[in-house]
Amino acid sequence: MELAKYMRGRVTVLALEGELDSATSGEARKRISELVPSDGAALLDLGGMTYMSSAGLRVLLLVYRQVRQLGVPLALARLNPDVAEVMTGTGFIDFFTVVDSVDDGVEALSG
Amino acid sequence: MRKPCVLIVADEAAGTTQLPGLAPALSDGGFDVRTATEDEVLASDEPDGPDGLLVSASLGLQRVAMLARRFAHLPAPPTTIVFPQDDLDALEACVRGGFDYIMPPFLPSLLRSRMSSCWERGQLAGAVEDMAAEASLRAYERDLAIAHEIQSGFLPEKLPAPHGWDVASRFRPARQVAGDFYDGFELVDGRRLGFVVADVCDKGVGAALFMALIRTLLRHTAEHTGTASGSGDDLPPAPGSMNMAEAGASLSPMLSVGAGPLVQAVVATNRYLTRNHLRQGYFATLIFGVLDPASGALLYINGGHNPAVLQRADGSHTLLPPTGPAVGMMLHSSYALGHASLERGDTLLLYTDGVVEARATGGTLFGMERLLTALSGPVKSAETVLSGIDKALRVHVGGAEQSDDITMLALHRSAV
């Protein structure tokens, strides 16, 4: 899995690419948690994700907990249909603000 | 026969005066002798190493160790032996650091015998290290085998089969231990059959530990919740959980008998997990069903799990989709009760995502459509339903490795 970080104003964008499963989730969790900002807002760009297993959902859940504790708003952008289906099925999607594009996410989080 | 090859690395800074006769004595002793500087050895990309590496102790323990490591990746790394060049303290430090040594005077027969015993000791040390590594791997495998055994104890030994019903199951972990589980047990003095299929997120030992916890919480709570009002006197309802009076009101009195244990089990398990284990982030998707074997009435909660399939005797089917989120994700999750009715000849299939996401060698998923096709024929028993799916899975997956746990539970109501 690849992870990139960049700023859009006060919004920290974390772009995830590749597969998030049991094999990659340990490292992904560690790296994402290090990059989550302690203020401003965070946007996870999942447009490059090709596969997410339940281990990946667990990573997202832990990120969600982390931002909740920090009081940092979080949104998810560009969910591919497969990932969206898994997140919908588990009821997971209801906890997140979901947007179609990074621009929409930045706008929603900056408002 | 090939002569054993010895590479001598002297300390250039120490001069060569203190090496009287080492190389000639080794030659006379039957060795093929080469010399090189420390830099040459470290920079060399030659694929082969010598049989013996003779290093000057004057380089100091660290540099000696670095030279020894240069060949450590070889299948048969050379034995490293130090010799004193001008400094006996340096020799002592290297010997204390674990290196074997030779001392002047260097005489061919003495050297030969000394070198061969150093070599044997080196081999022995290597063998001991290999054995230690193997032993630790064996210990790890044994621990996993024990974990596997213990986990089997968290699955039902036998599934209850009420009169007029038959029940079958499959449980195939992708690894030694699994995050999946299934369960089946009697409730309300045998008037109801409780059954569960669940999938704890992620894999391996972590998921297996949470599997044991979640199975225990669900079953224990279900078995110890009263049925009177369905509210479960020992546990106050959680904020956000469904209002039991309301749920009970929408159900006939016959149905609501099983509702209390069902709702309490799921809500209390969710509450326990989110209160005590939130940090660890484990959650489970599950279906918990409570069946009245006499009438075929079914109550269920689907917590974020793959929809169960209710296959009708006439060949049609109904899906039982989620009625709430996965268990253990959020404190205030609410769960609605689903209900259905199994008539004679109907079959209910519960499964985990390892079934629909089983991949063929090319990566194609088994998918819902293939599952429904495998289910569509006339049904003789729960067992034949599962063996039919097993067969379809085998055909689809071919030689590909099983990547996720596969769990299935089928309940079939006899046609007559």
What would you say this structure looks like, in words?
The complex is a heterodimer of chains A (111) and B (416). With 111 residues, chain A is α/β, with parallel strands linked by helices. Chain A has a single domain, classed as Transcription Regulator spoIIAA. Chain A has helices at residues 22-35, 54-70, 81-89, 102-110, and strands spanning 2-8, 11-20, 41-52, 74-77, 97-99. In chain A, strands 1-2-3-4-5 form a five-stranded mixed beta sheet, sandwiched between helices. In chain A, β4, α3 and β5 form a beta-alpha-beta unit. The mean pLDDT of chain A is 91. Chain B folds into two domains: 5-130, 3-Layer(aba) Sandwich (Rossmann fold); 153-413, Phosphatase 2c, domain 1. Chain B contains twelve helices and 15 strands. In chain B, the strands form three sheets. In chain B, strands 2-1-3-4-5 form a five-stranded parallel beta sheet, sandwiched between helices. Chain B starts with a strand and ends with a strand.
List the SSEs and their pairings.
The complex is a heterodimer of chains A (111) and B (416).
Chain A: E1 2-8, E2 11-20, H1 22-35, E3 41-52, H2 54-70, E4 74-77, H3 81-89, E5 97-99, H4 102-110
Parallel strand pairs in A: 2-3, 3-4, 4-5
Antiparallel strand pairs in A: 1-2
Chain B: E1 5-9, H1 22-28, E2 32-36, H2 38-43, E3 52-56, H3 61-70, E4 79-83, H4 88-96, E5 100-101, H5 108-152, E6 165-172, E7 180-187, E8 192-200, H6 204-223, H7 244-249, H8 253-256, H9 259-276, E9 284-291, E10 297-303, E11 308-311, E12 317-320, E13 338-341, E14 347-351, H10 353-356, H11 367-375, H12 382-397, E15 406-413
Parallel strand pairs in B: 1-2, 1-3, 3-4, 4-5
Antiparallel strand pairs in B: 6-15, 7-8, 8-9, 9-10, 10-13, 11-12, 11-14, 14-15
Helix pairs in contact in B: 1-5, 6-9, 11-12
